[in-house]
Write a structure and sequence with these properties.
The complex is a heterodimer of chains A (about 300) and B (about 290). Helices cover about 30% and strands about 25% of the residues of chain A. With about 300 residues, chain A is α/β, with parallel strands linked by helices. Chain A has a single domain, classed as 3-Layer(aba) Sandwich (Rossmann fold). A six-stranded mixed sheet of chain A has the order 6-7-8-3-9-10, sandwiched between helices. In chain A, strand 4 and strand 5 form a beta hairpin. In chain A, helix 2 crosses helix 3, helix 2 runs parallel beside helix 4 and helix 4 packs parallel to helix 5. The mean pLDDT of chain A is about 85. Chain B has a domain of about 180 residues: Rossmann fold, CATH 3.40.50. In chain B, about 35% of the residues lie in helices and about 25% in strands. Chain B is built from eight helices and ten strands. In chain B, a hairpin with a 2-residue loop joins strand 1 and strand 2. In chain B, helix 2 packs across helix 3. The longest helix of chain B is centred in the C-terminal third of the chain and has 20 residues. In chain B, about 45% of the residues are buried. The C terminus of chain B is likely disordered. The chains are: A alpha/beta (about 300), B alpha/beta (about 290). At the A-B interface, helix 4, helix 5, helix 8 and strand 11 of A face helix 3, helix 5, helix 7 and helix 8 of B.
Chain lengths: ~300, ~290
């Protein structure tokens, strides 16, 4: 049975006369414990979709249910990891996580709450940095704090909104492996938003490409038939990886995701030799003619895709 | 065939508070007319330094560069540069931004012809409907399209691309790589690109020059990319040879970029105390290919 369901969900922004439809009739169902990656263009509506689940946005049409309950607003049963980390700058790593634990588990004893904080700091390998403030951490470390904070609330579902988008390529690679390991170990249901097809393939059980907006829809579901441990260099030689990568990219670059804009235009390109600007320009009266590479040739281009 | 670009014994030394730092040491490279060459390497290996010396934005400490039989001494419109961020003038429309350089280089042409040149290149990169929009009204990907059109519109002798898509998301990057390649197919300008994206290098280049890790980075190995042109990404992704070359590049960047310099490969270089990756064994038996310059 599906744990998270989006049924014919539409969402738009702006006043009625200048409305921009972002999502149009999106359907999605995610099983418990499944890791699903939604891969799409910037500005397509991926984050909008995620925030319909987090409860920060409400759908205009259709509905979203989690564990059979319609989502009415934000709640601690959904942990969100944002691209910009959203840590409180005046609090240490431990205090940031503690804040979340205190709000979700007010009935727990002091000792139990401290243990919970330490357990998740350890899980993301930050024990050595537990008393540092966010400004004293690298981007990758901050994002690990953010992941620990989300998981420490023991949410039913983890929502990752381009969690690695702001990091450099090397750190991103390391964290992709680390976060997917943590997610799998936790057994949580995860929805990952990313613009990188490789990241989706590396981390998820299933890829859902999203078309470019406006009025974005989700494409076909691509199951990732690779084992749970994925080494990026070994994957490079795996024929299943290559085939999947080619299919996902083909869908995203194809007409289903990007409707071809049919522009047909006649253009003229004068075929001229650039002037050497080191040679002084002639004074007024001595105007030279441009040097044509070929006297008559004027290229006419018909831009029909 | 005669070499169009000849980079000989190029060195660059920066003076720092800790004494001189040699970033580039004895860099040699020859590029044929119409060839697309990529420099790939980790950050700090000096690849952008080489490119900015070629662009004339930085002086070489030693060595020199000859382009089409003339030694380079400073910046000039004979080299079209595509920067990581396109640095458009914010008060000018896309058309005006492109035409700014065109008006200089083609000053003998008529006003109408100069406009045609700018309009042609902007339309070919997909901005036919956005000629009169200012940079603030364009997305980041569209701004970079203007940057590409601006470089090509000068009909330069050489194209220099400094991580041209580094700031874009992966799908926009895919699109713009295709735009660049389509335009390049029409013009076949001699090009030198700097990137650390393995797929980008394979998709665009005829030859990939792999740089060892800095400081004092050197040319480590050279890879010839045999795929016929014009290239389509889909065909490449289905080609088994593509993944073999990709593996070779990744292997170099992960292992040999370090071992060739007598350094230990960084397997997992994240902010938080990880040892070297267990998946980086001693695979450095292949002897380095030195540049026959």
């Amino acid at each position: 049975m599906s744990f998270l369901v989006l049924n014919q969900v539409s969402k738009g922004f702006g006043p009625p006369e200048a409305r921009r439809e972002v999502l149009r009739g999106v359907n999605l169902s995610v099983k418990q414990g499944e890791i699903v990656a939604i891969v799409g263009y910037s500005g397509a509506g991926k984050s909008t979709l995620l925030h319909l689940v987090s409860g920060l946005l409400k759908p205009d049409a259709g509905f979203v249910t989690l564990g059979g309950q319609v989502i009415e607003g934000p709640g601690t049963d959904r942990g969100v990891v944002f691209q910009n980390y959203s840590l409180l700058p005046w609090m240490t790593v431990a205090e940031n996580i503690r804040l979340a634990v205190d709000s979700v588990f007010p009935n727990w004893t002091e000792v139990r709450r401290s243990e919970q904080v330490d357990r998740y700091i350890h899980l993301v390998n930050l024990t050595h940095a537990r008393d540092r403030r966010p400004s004293e951490l690298s981007g990758g470390m901050r994002q690990r704090v953010s992941v620990a904070r989300a998981l420490a609330m023991d949410p039913q579902i983890l929502l990752l909104d381009e969690p690695l988008g702001a990091l450099d390529a090397l750190t991103r690679g390391t964290l992709q492996e680390e976060i997917s390991r943590i997610c799998r170990a936790s057994g949580k249901t995860v929805v990952l938003i990313t613009n990188d097809p490789d990241e989706g393939i590396l981390m998820a059980d299933r890829i859902l490409p999203m078309s470019a907006g406006p009025g974005a829809i989700l494409g076909p579901s691509f199951p990732v038939v690779l084992g749970p441990t994925r080494d990026r260099r070994a994957l490079n030689q795996d024929p299943r990886f290559k085939a999947l990568r080619a299919e996902v990219v083909a869908w995203l670059l194809g007409p289903g995701a990007r409707p071809a804009v049919s522009v047909s235009r006649k253009l003229t390109l004068p075929d001229l030799e650039p002037e050497d600007l080191d040679i002084p320009r002639p004074l007024i009266g001595g105007r030279r003619r441009p040097r044509r590479r070929s006297e008559e040739r004027r290229e006419t281009v018909d831009l029909t895709p | 065939m005669a070499d169009h670009v000849e980079i000989s014994h190029l060195s660059k030394v920066f003076s720092t508070s800790k004494g001189p730092l040699r970033v580039v040491k004895d860099f040699n490279l020859r590029i044929r007319q119409g060839e697309f060459v990529t420099l790939i390497g980790h950050s700090g290996c000096g690849k952008s330094t080489v490119l900015s010396i070629l662009a004339g934005l930085s002086d070489a400490s030693a060595g020199g560069i000859v382009l089409a039989g003339r030694e380079l001494t400073g910046p000039g419109p004979d080299r079209g540069v595509v920067f990581q961020s396109p640095n458009l003038l914010p008060w000018m429309s896309a058309l005006e931004n492109v035409q700014l350089g065109v008006d200089q280089v083609f000053y003998t042409a008529s006003r109408e012809e100069r406009r045609q040149i700018a309009e042609y290149y902007l339309t070919v990169v997909g901005l036919g409907e956005a000629l009169h929009q200012r940079p603030s009204e364009l997305s980041q990907g569209m701004r970079q399209r203007v940057g590409i059109a601006r470089a090509f519109a000068l009909s330069p002798k050489m194209l220099l691309l400094d991580e041209p898509f580094g700031m874009l998301d992966s799908l926009t990057r895919f699109e713009l790589q295709q735009v660049l390649l389509d335009l390049w197919n029409r013009t076949r300008l001699t090009a030198l690109m700097v990137t650390h994206d393995v797929d980008e290098a394979l998709f665009l280049s005829d030859r990939i020059v792999m740089m060892t890790n800095g400081p004092e980075a050197e040319v480590g190995e050279i890879l010839h990319v045999p795929f016929p042109r014009p290239r389509r990404r889909q065909e490449l992704l289905e080609n088994p040879e593509y993944y073999r070359l990709r593996e070779q590049l990744i292997e170099f960047l992960h292992v040999r970029a370090y071992t060739l310099k007598g350094q230990t490969p960084k397997g997992a270089a994240s902010g938080g105390g990880h040892g070297p990756s267990p998946t980086a064994p001693a695979l450095c038996a292949a002897s380095p290919v030195t540049v026959a310059a």
